[in-house]
Amino acid sequence: MELKKQISEAFASHFGGEGTFYTSAGRINLIGEHTDYNGGFVFPGAIDKVIMAEIRPNDTDKVNLYSVDMNASASFGLNEADAPAEQWARYVFGVCREIIKRGGTVKGFNAVFAGNVPLGAGLSSSAALESCFAFALNDLFNGNSIDKFELAKIGQSTEHNYCGVNCGIMDQFASVFGKKDCLIRLDCRSLEYEYFPFKIDGYKLVLVDSVVKHELVDSPYNKRRESCERVAKRLGIETLRDADMEMLDAVKSDISAEDYMRAKFVIGEKERVLGVCDALNRGDIATVGRLMYETHEGLSKDYEVSCEELDFLNDVAKECGVTGSRIMGGGFGGCTINLVPDAIHDSFIATVTEKFNERYGHAPKIYDVIISDGARRLEE
Ligand code: ADP
Ligand code: MG
Predict the structure, then answer these.
(1) How far apart are CA 41 and CA 181, in angstroms?
(2) Residues within a 6 A CB radius of ligand 1
(3) Which positions of the chain have pLDDT values less than 50?
(4) Staple 165 to which of 150, 159, 279, 343, CB 3.0 to 4.6 Å?
(5) Within 13 Å of residue 224, how many CA atoms lie on the same side as its CB?
(6) Residue 285, domain extent
(7) CB 32 within 8 A of CB 160
(8) Phi-psi region for residue 78, left (φ > 0), alpha (ψ -120 to 50) or beta?
(9) What's the CA dihedral at 170, 36, 210, 116 to 10 degrees?
(10) 194 & 207 share domain
(11) CATH number of the domain residue 12 falls in
(12) Model pLDDT, residue 217
């Protein structure tokens, strides 16, 4: 059933009558991996996988939620001590609290929500949920006086303070700022951003989820960060954002071979994001694809955050004639993002599914995505 219809039926039966509809989206990142903590660029966009909510103030100091997908209800007050036990409700509670902490207003409301962002697949369903409610509560109770960057930060702080996830700003940023047919280059140092038209007539974006997760991501992630910090320190700069290969090669003999490889990837990745933006401006999709493959190679060989399954998916994409393919996200499992010519779209999906299944005993999950609008109120 259509999402909106499902929600409005549930709203009518749980709370009676109608509320206002809001939505926000999951996201992809076309290129720019492990760049955020190095002060570099990321290049995300919102997608056509969304969270949608119907909300109505209830003139009390209580929030009553019904999650269609969890088939569960939760209620909480708006004070810090009122945190709900249900994890899914903590995302909404956190957003309320973070608005209040910033001096904004949140009063009691009833809400029903549902979504089609796959959970935990690397498309950031949690950011979609946070930004849907952040946008809605700004509209309903604050006359839209909270600016969009602050809405993204409210989502990020929700993850930090109420969900135990120490994430960067990219996911919530993309979810709030997303625009149809546009990717957004975010400078993680200055937080300046720029929209680039993402017109890929003749191609589709396809995510292939390996459904594996290999390591506790924390410790390799921290080790990568430490390598980058050591090299930046040796170069006398704040972050690797300000380094180039010439500078790196000049200190090669003073740093470990491992630190060298890590920094080489980060420096290359900064250039690749800029290269992809230029290529998109020229409509040069072949170059976009080539740079995606280069990123995969760098993540696999220099940054060493790939795994057998992801390298396998990348090899199959190459064999099938996919224009660009790479790991999306931190690595050690999760998805690849693929730029696929329309003509081979169906055959690629059939081939990658069959080959992966043959080798690893389970099928990957496939998600077609279209770059779409982010957080907004749904007009009738
Ligand atoms: P992701 O990578 O998709 O963001 P997370 O683990 O960060 O994965 O967030 C997933 C969590 O967000 C779920 O466990 C749930 O608590 C909440 N969530 C996401 N989508 C929904 C939904 N449609 N309905 C209820 N809760 C959701
Ligand atoms: Mg998440």
Answers:
(1) 19
(2) 51, 67, 69-70, 87-88, 91, 114-115, 117, 119-126, 129
(3) none
(4) 159
(5) 25
(6) 203-368
(7) no
(8) alpha
(9) 0
(10) no
(11) 3.30.230.10
(12) 62
> How many domains is the chain built from?
2
Q: Is the model's pTM score more than 0.85?
A: yes
Check whether residue 178 and residue 209 sit in a common domain: no
CATH code of residue 238:
3.30.70.890
pLDDT at residue 219 in the model: 83
Question: Are residues 208 and 154 part of one domain?
Answer: no
Taking alpha carbons only, the member of 142, 138, 141 closest to residue 153 is 138
Domain identity same for 22 and 8: yes
Using alpha carbons, select from 206, 40, 197, 10 the residue that is nearest to residue 114: 10
| 363 CA distance to ligand 2 middle (Å) | 23
Q: Are residues 157 and 293 in the same domain?
A: no
Tell me how far apart the alpha carbons of residues 223 and 208 are, in angstroms, rounded to a whole number: 27
Burial class (CB in 10 A: 0-12, 13-18, 19+), 166: exposed
Best residue among 54, 88, 91, 119 to mutate for probing ligand 1's pocket (most ligand atoms within 8 Å of CB) is 119
